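So, does this match?
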Amino acid sequence: MAHSEAHRGAAGAESGPARAGLDVLGVPVDAIDLSAALDRVGRWIDAAETRCVSLATAHGVMDARRTPEVRRAFEAADLVAPDGMSMVWLLRLAGHRGAGRVYGPDLMRELCGLSVARGWSHFLLGGEEAVNERLRRRLEESFPGVAIAGRYSPPFGPLGAEEGEAIVRRIETSGAQLVWVGLGSPKQDLWMASHGRRLRRAVSIGVGAAFDFLSGRRRQAPRWIRRCGLEWLFRFAMEPRRLWPRYSRYPLFVLLILARLPAIWRRRGR
């Protein structure tokens, strides 16, 4: 498997030293853990930079493999953090021992906590209206003083150009520095690639199911299940009809990765 030390040709990619990571079936995944991700996002916010953060999972990688537009969205992100445990294991196998899971709900909790002391404000984009409102209430209860500058629950289905423009204006008017994009993968990655860079002085982060988990709409897998990399199985058992199309592609993902393991192992010794 070829690897990418930087996002080649990615618009707006971070300048400076090459970004250490691994190309996973065409998706450049950064070798990073939660602590380093928090530090990087915090520096971007304090510097008033416009950045986009995607979270990589097996199903996201398979979406990118099937759809060039999704692959380009991942390539354009300033940070592609390993959300799924399969991404973490592959990074470690390739020699990035410090890589760790950047789990969307954990990332959101930690940044909300940091934001109270550092004066950052948030915008909640995504989820059904009731879920979005419940998430706002729960964040305000869990993190007294957290500033939710705005929120919006877009209609189900593809977002048209006019709707996209309206969302950008709404976020800009709010003045939020952290934009949580909970539109689901790959819709949230596509939205950030087309609109996230037009936001001035805001970091957009696609967190998908974090809206459902942190609002209490859906049950989160126990921590030990998440650590074992079996969260997908827990979620599938809870919602088999909804998640079957996503997880039915996992056997192919495993086969494709197994075919590339020798190349990953060879890279470890470089």
About this structure: The CA atoms of residues 78 and 132 lie 26 Å apart. The radius of gyration is 18 Å.
